[in-house]
Specification:
This protein has 366 residues and is mostly beta strands. The chain is built from three helices and 15 strands. The chain has helices spanning 2-6, 35-38, 98-101; strands at 184-194, 197-206, 212-218, 224-231, 239-247, 255-263, 269-271, 275-278, 286-288, 295-302, 306-314, 319-327, 330-337, 345-353, 356-364.
């Protein structure tokens, strides 16, 4: 109509900020779980038929009218926040991104799978090639999500997303079940390497009983081995600090990675951020990984015991984070959680050390 034609141009929403707008994107939030799956509740889920008998563009599985128009999919919002699941980076609001909770490819109940986006979308359907198993179509299905929430999904799926349920007793799939992870927070996790001994220290704030903390080490940042378990104290809802020393004299690798796993009697888990330490002397200030996703590590070396003040500043000059830490002589690593309030973009990390200001630029990309 002339009225519509006279209206100004529309700005179409693009939740993940890449590729095409949401209405043309089969994975609008870039978490590897297609919108067809996230748009429906688990027990309500209905596989698409691949048929459109009346030619109106609505798959027969969701079309209740013979003719133009139909019901379509009733959009689902698991945690009831501002974003329905297909636009929500954390559908259950537990602090662990859907891209990790929904894609445990090796089914080891650990967020150690390679889910980093390739940035390539060969067929232009909005699903990154990391998760797209059919670049000849825009199918948004999984082999593990079937009608009524069964695990008998599509025989020829368009994605490799696992949408797994790690424990049979869980009420929903991991990315929609809060109790998949323990309800406590790692406040800080840092390490220092001196004379072939790594000293680790972590502080937690607990809201429920934790059985133990396991110290895990890796030589490649992907495959971790358990070194030792530390029994948690019986205190509850308190700030607690733990430490562990690892003699690495016989380790030949030049770089070491560590993380802490909290475990309760029912098998629920939560991981700290991963920190890395170099056995080679390095005087530079580094932020890893870069770009940053859910956590980051600050690598800084010092010739003596001293105090460092760390500020994180956004591109508008606002200080969004600050912390004061004690450095030991040698290479130090400080783990910093990435706040949900930090928007995607560039940041400056400023370290004030011995009256010197060191800076490192990094970006946040969710």
């Amino acid at each position: 109509s002339t009225t519509v034609a006279a209206l100004g141009s529309l700005t179409l929403p693009n939740r993940d900020g890449t590729g095409r707008p949401n209405l043309y994107d089969i994975d609008s939030d870039d978490d590897g779980i297609p919108d067809n799956i996230e748009g429906q509740c688990t027990v309500c889920y209905v596989l698409p038929s691949g048929l459109d008998s009346d030619g109106d563009g609505i798959d027969d599985s969701y079309d209740n009218i013979s003719g133009f128009g139909g019901k379509g999919i009733s959009i689902y919002n698991h945690d009831g926040d501002a974003y329905p699941d297909y636009l929500d980076f954390d559908s259950d609001g537990d602090g662990l991104a859907d891209i990790y909770e929904g894609n445990d490819f090796n089914l080891n109940k650990k967020p150690d799978d390679n889910v980093t986006l390739t940035g390539i979308d060969t067929d232009g359907d909005g699903l990154d090639d990391r998760f797209d198993t059919d670049n000849t179509s825009a199918k948004g299905t999984s082999a593990y999500m079937g009608n009524g929430g069964s695990f008998n999904g599509a025989t020829s799926p368009g994605s490799n997303t696992m949408v797994q349920k790690s424990y049979p007793g869980n009420l929903d799939r991991d990315w929609r079940f809060v109790d998949y992870v323990l309800n406590f927070n790692f406040i800080s996790f840092k390490g220092v390497l001196i004379d072939n001994v790594v000293s680790l220290k972590w502080t937690v704030s607990r809201n429920e009983n934790v059985k133990q903390y396991s110290i895990e080490r890796s030589l490649d940042g992907v495959h971790f081995d358990n070194l030792q378990s530390v029994v948690a104290t019986k205190a509850k809802s308190e700030v607690e600090t733990y430490s562990y020393s690892d003699d690495v004299k016989s380790v030949t690798a030049s770089k070491l990675f560590y993380r802490i796993k909290g475990l309760d009697n029912n098998g629920k888990i939560k991981y700290s951020s991963t920190i890395s330490l170099s056995k080679e002397r390095d005087s530079r200030l580094q932020v890893v990984p870069n770009p940053v996703h859910s956590s980051m590590q600050v690598f800084i070396s010092s010739s003596e015991k001293t105090t460092v003040k760390i500020h994180i500043i956004d591109m508008k000059g606002r200080r969004v984070y600050e912390i004061r830490e004690t450095l030991s002589p040698g290479n130090n690593t400080i783990g910093i959680p990435v706040s949900n309030n930090w928007s995607n973009g560039s940041y400056i990390l400023e370290a004030i050390l011995d009256e010197k200001i060191l800076t490192a630029k990094f970006s946040v990309q969710r």
